[in-house]
Amino acid sequence: MKKIIISFPSYKIDIECELNETNIAQQIYQILPQQARVHLWGEEIYFELPLNLPNENPTLDVEIGDVGWWPEGNCFCIFFGRTPISTSSKPKPYSEVTIIGKIKLEKDTIEKLKQIKSNSKVVLLKV
Question: How far is CA 62 from CA 38, 81, 96, in A?
Fold first, then answer.
């Protein structure tokens, strides 16, 4: 398992993420470091990366703390709560994603992520 840091410099927030063994996760790891601008969709942070990869294991079933790849937007997604189409307390992606990892959930991780505003800078770094 490869570890990365998801950093939000304006907020002084660094979150550890463990990538899984999917091809998508490995491809993302290879292009790091990367930076982007954040978009929000409910309690989901997503941002575009310079990769065009199809889903490997498409699913709509995600958990809080999951990190996914959304091929429709070439986006890295962090699920940390309800999205606009959630029918329970679980996040629900807009369309199918491939789970590529999980963020380290510490006691204040979700509260930190709730502070992030749209258009904020995010940086992905190898550990």
Answer: 20, 10, 10
The type of residue at 48 is E
What residue segments make up the domains of the chain, in order of their start?
A: 2-126
Strands (E), 9-93: 13-19, 34-37, 39-40, 44-48, 66-70, 75-79
Tell me, which fold does domain 2-126 have in CATH? Cyclophilin (2.40.100)
Amino acid letter for position 116: I
The structure's pTM equals: 0.97
- Condensed to tens digits (0 to 9), the pLDDT of residues 68-88 reads 999 999 999 999 999 999 999
Q: What is the mean pLDDT of residues 42-62?
A: 98
Q: Are 43 and 114 in contact, with CB atoms under 8 Å apart?
A: yes
Structure tokens at 20: 């899984």
CB 50 within 8 A of CB 31: yes
Number of Cβ within 10 Å of residue 85's Cβ equals 12
